[in-house]
Design goal:
alpha+beta, Jelly Rolls
């Protein structure tokens, strides 16, 4: 998969879609690309390294106690882990052969420093998501 194809997928994500082309190019070029096969552990449960994964091709599943959550191309997992600098709680297991973009803590910090708009956009998105969640809970409860 080439950089332009990766950028096209990133533009469709809620997490990175509003970022500049320069940011997306840097992210796509600098992130680790990991190929996986069915059953591979992409993220181990309780893994020490903090990272975010963007599924580029194929499917993966977040292994939850109740039932797994399916992820497909364009799914982003672990962004809050990077923001909070905490390890992921649940395993991420490949459901098919595929490709993932892995953003480690070092790259994330570099992006925050080099692209101030990324930091602002990220905060705005988190506040918006939190407000939607609170609104949904208020509707459900009351």
């Amino acid at each position: 998969m080439n950089i332009n194809q990766i950028i096209k997928i990133l533009k469709k994500t809620d997490s990175f879609g509003i970022q500049t082309d320069s940011f997306l190019n840097t992210l796509a070029f600098s992130s680790e690309k990991v190929e996986y096969s069915t059953g591979d552990l992409i993220i181990k449960s309780g893994e020490k390294s903090v990272k975010c994964v963007v599924i580029l091709e194929g499917k993966a599943f977040i292994q939850k106690k109740t039932s797994p959550i399916e992820l497909k191309s364009g799914s982003v997992i672990g962004l809050l882990s990077l923001i909070n600098n905490c390890s992921p709680k649940d395993a991420l297991i490949a459901g098919t052969k595929g490709l993932a973009l892995v953003i480690n803590r070092e790259l994330f910090e570099k992006l925050l420093q080099e692209f101030p708009d990324f930091n602002r956009n990220l905060k705005s998105k988190l506040v918006s998501d939190l407000n939607k969640t609170v609104g949904s809970l208020q509707t459900t409860l009351g």
